[in-house]
Amino acid sequence: MRKTTLIRPRDAAPELRKLERRLMLKAGLSLGALTMLTGCDLNDGDDVDRALFAMSRFNDRVQALLFSRTRLAATFPASRITNPFRFNAFYDEDDVPDIDGGTWKMSVSGLVDDKTPWSLARLRTLPQESQITRHICIEGWSQIGQWSGVPLHVFLKRIGADTRAKYVGFTCADRYYTSLDMASALHPQTILALDFIGKPLPADFGFPMRLRIPTKLGFKSAKHVVSVSVTNTNPGGYWEDQGYNWFSGS
Ligand SMILES: Nc1nc2c(c(=O)[nH]1)N[C@H]1C(S)=C(S)[C@@H](COP(=O)(O)O)O[C@H]1N2
Ligand SMILES: [Mo]
Q1: Is the peptide bond before 9 cis (omega within 30 degrees of 0)?
Q2: Counting atoms of ligand 1 from 1, which one is nearest the CA of 173?
Q3: Is residue 73 assigned to a domain?
Q4: Domain identity same for 121 and 144
Q5: Do 172 and 148 touch, CB atoms closer than 8 A?
Q6: Domain co-membership, 91 together with 184
Q7: Pocket of ligand 1 (CB under 6 A)
């Protein structure tokens, strides 16, 4: 049975009180208004999580409005590249997917003219760009690396993507997935990376292709990509669907 008691500030969970303060300060919303907006009754932990999740999606819209299509992430000289470079994934290094670059294909779906799958060799025929940027993980560490590959805007144009669509989604060989708003997908520094520090991506770092987007937190830079889709339905993401902020960038 669902509890229906109203929350009094005294017995509300601390995170709920914090949420209420933030709402009042940032949006002039009361908990009652949030209850209406989110459909959560805010009486137990689950509902608080759901309300925070709804707030995070609200933040996405605000961040998207503040996003500048042309503001660039900082770049660095080669001397600043972090060595050794740190591996991270939702599993251990032993479980990194073992992918055959010769048979690997990336599928394309959704609002695009040309859905022909892409081989590695064909991706290499497109214009390539190189960048030395900082990768920032939400866990609180960062490192500078060099990635080269096809700018995503070049790729999207090439496949005849409808760039008025809202999202670009990515799925990976390890069942990881993530997605970008179209403005971020078209940002000049967002690339389909094939090389890391001048050599084909090592398995740990996303062979044979990874997304690299320096204007966003590290978890958006999906490794071992196997599909790209252009869509108006938010594809979410592995961490995003567990409550991490979807926009996660500048
Ligand atoms: N396919 C896949 N991509 C992924 C992840 C993952 O678990 N699987 N983890 C993300 C996170 S949280 C981080 S910080 C970076 C780590 O990239 P690195 O191993 O090159 O440092 O990859 C991102 N992309
Ligand atoms: Mo991360």
Answers
A1: no
A2: 1
A3: no
A4: yes
A5: no
A6: yes
A7: 86-90, 137, 172, 174, 176, 204-205, 218-219, 221-224
Short-list 146, 14, 1, CA closest to 77: 146
> Which of 41, 66, 91 is the last residue in one of the domains?
66
2 is a domain residue: no
Same domain, 140 and 218: yes
Positive or negative: CA dihedral 40, 42, 45, 50: positive
CA 17 to ligand 1 center in whole angstroms: 33
If asked whether residues 22 and 134 sit together in one domain, one would say no
- The letter for the amino acid at 37 is L
Average pLDDT for 123-142:
94
Q: Whose CA is nearest to atom 1 of ligand 1?
A: 223
Structural domain boundaries enclosing 158: 78-242
Q: Is the pLDDT assigned to residue 186 strictly greater than 50?
A: yes
For residues 100 and 195, membership in a common domain is answered with: yes
State how many domains the chain has.
2
Ligand 2 centroid to residue 195 C-alpha, Å: 20
Positive or negative, the CA dihedral 116, 130, 209, 68 is negative
Give dist(CA 155, CA 75) in Å, integer: 22
- Is 154 in the same domain as 43? no
pLDDT tens digit string along 19-47?
666 666 655 555 565 555 555 555 555 56
pLDDT score for 3: 40
Comparing 63-72, 105-114, 197-206, 234-243, the range with the smallest average pLDDT is: 63-72
Ligand 2 centroid – CA 39 distance (Å): 31
